[in-house]
Amino acid sequence: MLYQHLTDSCFEDRLGGYGVSRKRVEALLLQLTDVFATLKARRDKAAVPLLDLPSRDDDLTAIETLAARLRSSYETVVVAGTGGSGLSGRALTRLAPLGSNLKFHFLENIDPDLMDEVLGGIDCKNTCFLIISKSGATVETLAQFFVLFDHAASKIGKKAASECFFIITMPGDNPLRRVARTHGLPVLDHDAIGGRFAILTNVGLLPAAIAGLDIRALRCGAGTVIDQMDKASHPQECPASLGATLHYAFIEKNYGMSVMLPYSERLSGFSAWWRQGWAESLGKQGKGSAPIYAIGTTDQHSQLQLYLDGPRDKFFHMIMLTRDGNGRSIAGDLDDELAYLRDKTLGDIMEAEQKATFETLVRHHCPVRLFKLERLGEAQIGALLMHFMLEIILTAGLLGVNPFDQPAVEEGKKLAREYLLAGKA
Questions:
Q1: Helix (H) or strand (E) holding 258
Q2: pLDDT per residue as tens digits for the range 91-101
Q3: Architecture of 11-41+217-407 per CATH?
Q4: Taking the model in full, what pTM does it have?
């Protein structure tokens, strides 16, 4: 087990079991001092807009007003956007209150079968469309827009279609904004924050607010993490710094995979969002580690065998919720073999399963961190989001890479356009 604080009595012994010495961790924390100080200095100069988001509320009223109108006017929301443009909304709407009749479809892929499936299942009269692209030039999103708009226009007419499409893109001249102007579509400005870090902007907050989430609480939860960083005099006082240090120390010891394992279906979107942020921010210059998406209890039956009995190359991050007594009870006639299930709730079983997996990972000497939440509300997810964004940025500092660009991805985008222009696709 890996603890979040160096003062825990078992920390040194556990680290040694994975080949990482306490001395090395302390040296890395010292190395992180300059990275940490630089990040704080840039924050003081408002040079990292992401870190200023939690203290902002100037944009929230407009988001809430539009969301309330859309929520009361439509039964279905289709979000078209790839990468963070789609993953952000998906991650947050998964937390929406149960019992809502509102349906979301996230089109993060241009797979023709997926598009046909979504279009075949919606009523355009009761559907609004959010089209999101930071650059406004993402070929997948542009293609999705044209297909979606043509379909809606064929069903309800161009005028009605133009009233149910909403665009989020950067200010200035770009293809998506020009298309919006041509069709008279409302455009919301995308903040000057990279897509994978934009979850606490309108990219994520508008779908979240439509779903009925308290977006002010999301920002407030993220703010608790920023406040902790602001008050820290040294990296040791900031949990995200220790997380970054541990990541780097394990990468050095050839733990080339990082496994996010939450025990909550409501966090499945969060895991997918984290996977993109980790991979796209750190996988550069031959550096980084491979992020693995998993979910408990499902992946106990698909991946746990590998985790426990396969190569020792994975660093685990478990997120548990307190589940005792939650959910429906098991009723009916149970024979003696099943007596252990009598009067138990699904939450009781989930609690036992997540504890068992954690302890089994520890016994098999797999490095694992534990995040334990009493509840999963907007404030908690806001804090988790900001913690892991900070962890990514600080890990990038130790690796010596820029967390905010993606040069290799741009090469593929350019080549795809060349194929399309040449008619070779």
A1: strand 257-262
A2: 999 998 765 78
A3: 3-Layer(aba) Sandwich (3.40)
A4: 0.93
Tell me the Ramachandran region of residue 237: left when phi exceeds 0, alpha when psi lies from -120 to 50, beta otherwise. Answer: alpha
Task: Identify whether the C-beta of residue 371 lies closer than 8 Å to the C-beta of residue 383.
Answer: no
Query: Contact at 8 Å (CB) between 54 and 226?
Result: yes
First to last CA, the chain: 49
pLDDT, one tens digit per residue, over 306-325 is: 999 999 999 999 999 998 88
Q: Is the pLDDT of residue 2 over 60?
A: no
Which residue has tokens 């220790």?
A: 242
Confidence of residue 66 (pLDDT cuts 50, 70, 90): very high
Residues annotated as catalytic (active site), given as ranges: 280, 301, 413
Q: What is the CA 344 to chain-centroid distance, rounded?
A: 32
Tokens of 356: 């068992």
Question: Residue 164 is encoded by which pair of tokens?
Answer: 């149910």
Any residues with CB less than 8 A from the CB of 401 and at least 6 apart, and which? Answer: 281, 282, 284, 285, 287, 288
| Identity of the amino acid at 217 | A
Q: Helix, strand or coil for residue 109?
A: coil
Provide the phi-psi class of 343: left if phi over 0, else alpha when psi is between -120 and 50, else beta: left
Overall average pLDDT of the 402-416 stretch = 84
Lookup result for tokens 């408990």: 296
8 A C-beta contact, residue 102 and residue 76: yes
Tell me if residue 404 falls in helix, strand or coil. coil
- CATH homologous superfamily for 52-213? Glucose-6-phosphate isomerase like protein; domain 1 (3.40.50.10490)
List the beta strands (DSSP E) in 74-207.
76-80, 103-107, 127-132, 165-169, 187-189
* Residue 129 vs residues 37, 123, 161, 214: alpha-carbon distances, Å: 42, 12, 9, 21
Q: Which two tokens stand for residue 306?
A: 């590998």
